[in-house]
Amino acid sequence: MKRVFTLSDKAWHGSCLQYKWQKTLGNYIAVAGPDSSVKIFDRHGQKRNELNLPGRCLAMDWDKDGDTLAVIADKSSSIYLWDANVNKTSQLDSGMRDQMSFILWSKTASLLAVGTAKGNLLIYNQQTSRKIPVLGKHTKRITCGCWSSHNLLALGSEDRNMTVSNHEGDTIRQTQVRSDPTDVQFSVMKTDERASPGESTVSVVVGRKTLFLFNLNDPDNPIELAFQQRYGTIIAYRWYGDGYIMIGFSQGYFVVISTHIREIGQELFQAHNHKDSLTSIAISQSLNKAASCGDNW
C-alpha cells in the first residue's frame, strides 16, 4: 500500500524547494523554501519544528548518524544546529566575516566543512568543539564539495580550481578546470585490472558539459570526458558498481559509461526516457535499480 503526504505551505507555492532526508534513520525531512525558514517534518508528514532564520536558507546537511541538522542562512555568520534527539536548535558562531556559501558533514566523523563566498573554509569538529579556520583556501566562492570515507575534503570554487584537503584543512592536491565546477564526488576509478586502493578519484562536472576525473595518485594526468551535444547539459551523475557512472542530461537522456581504462568514456547504455527534460537521477545499490524523473511528472 502506498502512502503519499503533501507538505503544503502557501508561502512556498510555485517555488523551488531545498530538502534533505535525515541520514541513517530517515525519520525526518528538512525542507527550505524562498522564505527565511526551514521546516522539519517526520515521515508521516507532521511538522516537528521550524527554524526561523535571519535570511533565506543557503544550504543544509545532516550529520552521518542523523542526529544533527546544520543550516547556513543569508545575512548570518551563525551555523544553526537542530538536534533531532531533543528537538532543540542551537547556534554556532562561525567566526567567518564573509557570507557562508557551502556546508557539508563528513561521511564517517563528526566533522563539518563550511565554505564562504570569498573562498575561506571552516572545519568544525563537533566532538571536540574545535574550529579550524582556513583563510584563502580559494580566491572566490566555494560552491561544491565532498568528503571521502577517509576524511579528505574536495572543494570546487568559482575560481575554477579544485582542492583536496585533509581533515585539518591542509591542501594536499590542487588542479585547475576550464569552467565552473559543480557536483564534486569521490569514488574508485578502475585504472587497470585491479581497482585503485580507496577512494582515489575525484570527479566533478565542468561547465555542466564535461566530466573531469582527477586521480589523486596520478595528479598530472586528469581525464576530461565530453558527450554528444544533443544530450544537452549534465544535470546529475552517480557512481555505482565496479567503476561505472550513470549520467543524466537536460534533454531527457541518460547514459552509462565505464571508467575501466580500456573502456574509458565509452557509452555502455543509453536511454531517452524523457521527451522534453530530465531533472534528476538516483541509484539504489541494494535494489540494483536506477530511477530518473523529468517532463514535469
TrEMBL record:
Keyword flag Repeat = yes
Q: Which InterPro entries match?
A: Beta-prop_WDR19_1st, WD40/YVTN_repeat-like_dom_sf, WD40_rpt, WDR19/dyf-2
Sequence ranges assigned to domain WDR19 first beta-propeller in this UniProt record: 18-296
Please name the Pfam families in this protein's record: Beta-prop_WDR19_1st (PF23389)
SUPFAM superfamilies found in the cross-reference section: Tricorn protease domain 2
Identify the stretch annotated as signal peptide in this record: none
Coiled coil among keywords: no
Q: Name one GO biological process term.
A: cilium assembly
Q: Which UniProt keywords apply?
A: Repeat, WD repeat
One Gene Ontology CC term in the entry:
cilium
This protein's superkingdom?
Eukaryota
> Per its UniProt record, what PANTHER family does this chain match?
OSMOTIC AVOIDANCE ABNORMAL PROTEIN 1/WD REPEAT MEMBRANE PROTEIN, WD REPEAT DOMAIN 19
Protein name in the entry: WDR19 first beta-propeller domain-containing protein
The organism is Synaphobranchus kaupii
Lineage of producing organism: Eukaryota, Metazoa, Chordata, Craniata, Vertebrata
